[in-house]
From TrEMBL:
Domain NAD-dependent epimerase/dehydratase: 6-235
Family in the record: Belongs to the NAD(P)-dependent epimerase/dehydratase family.
InterPro entries xrefs: Epimerase_deHydtase, NAD(P)-bd_dom_sf
Natural source organism: Methanohalarchaeum thermophilum
Protein name, UniProt field: Nucleoside-diphosphate-sugar epimerase
Length: 307
């Protein structure tokens, strides 16, 4: 099936902007949904085949009006941080779970395929590394819980109404355009003071990082070939400690700072070790193309242009 008219919730966020540009380059018509809660209006995309709607996904009636007659939806809009989910539990649930439910209700009426963007935090502390999609869903954060609940509604809509919904469990996405996360934090700290870096915790936290263009390609593959009712991991299947990230960034910036540690554990709900088993998505023809060193260099070049 050809998907010509596509809606993207969270279209002005980090992943949403990159996906929007990619789809516009494929001559698609894009309906962007974003209330700018995590981005700025001045960064809004302008293009003759792009229409933007300043809508909160919790507003079902407004959402219906905006995405009537579409062929597919990429659902990225979310409250997407673990610390905020702890502070604002109800809001996190309303946006991530009830917002997803609204998208699913509309997809049932329009027969649109839905790519639900989920997260590796649904696994909580994984039983094994690398972690496959068959691993238990045991989130340890409210963010992970709200996204796991949203996934459950996706599976239920597939089973009850025979809708076409695919979920992608993203690991740590980085690259040009991202203004949060450990890499962004290190760039900012070291730009302000190249002689010293304070690292949260012990520096031994070890995670899977995936570059933005590889994520955009995974989203395209999920739309074209993703099986309804299935979930797919999107990661690099490589993991790096925070200390290893710091060392690579020092090399790129050509600096040799003193490193100190706050000690103790990270924030509540943080999963300290992650590594994706990506064999399921690779069977659809996808694989990550950008390694960490190349990705960090690209990210730092963008950072220098933006400061």
């Amino acid at each position: 099936m050809e998907y010509e008219k596509i809606a993207i919730t969270g279209s002005n966020g980090f992943i949403g902007r990159n996906l929007t540009k990619n789809l516009l380059n494929q001559d698609k018509t894009i309906i962007g949904i974003d209330n700018f809660s995590n981005s700025k209006k001045k960064d809004q995309i302008e293009h003759p085949r792009y229409s933007h709607y300043d809508i909160d996904i919790r507003n079902l009636e407004e959402l219906k009006k905006a995405i009537n007659g579409i062929d597919a939806v990429f659902h990225l809009a979310a409250q997407s941080t673990v610390p905020k989910s702890t502070k604002y539990i109800d809001k996190d649930f309303e946006i991530n779970t009830k917002g997803t439910l609204n998208v699913l209700k509309i997809s049932k009426e329009t027969d649109a395929k839905v790519i639900n963007v989920s997260t590796s935090t649904v696994y909580g502390i994984p039983n094994s590394l690398p972690t496959s999609e068959e691993s238990p869903i045991k989130p340890i954060s409210f963010y992970g819980a709200s996204k796991a609940s949203a996934e459950s509604y996706c599976f239920a809509f597939n089973g009850t109404y025979d809708t076409s919904v695919v979920s992608l469990r993203l690991y740590n996405v980085y690259g040009p355009g991202n203004r949060k996360g450990v890499m962004w934090d290190f760039f900012n700290k070291l730009n302000a003071n190249p002689s010293h870096l304070e690292i949260l915790g012990t520096g031994k936290q070890e995670k899977d990082y995936i570059y933005i263009t590889d994520v955009v390609e995974a989203l395209n593959v999920a739309l074209d070939r993703g099986e309804p009712g299935e979930a797919y991991n999107v990661g690099s299947s490589c993991s790096y400690t925070v200390n290893e990230l710091a060392e690579r960034i020092f090399e790129i910036m050509d600096i040799d700072p003193e490193v100190t540690y706050t000690g103790g554990k990270s924030w509540k709900g943080d999963v300290e070790k992650t590594k994706a088993d990506i064999s399921k998505l690779k069977k659809l023809g996808w694989k990550p193309e950008i390694g960490l060193d190349e990705g960090l260099k690209n990210y730092y070049k963008w950072f220098k242009r933006k400061i």
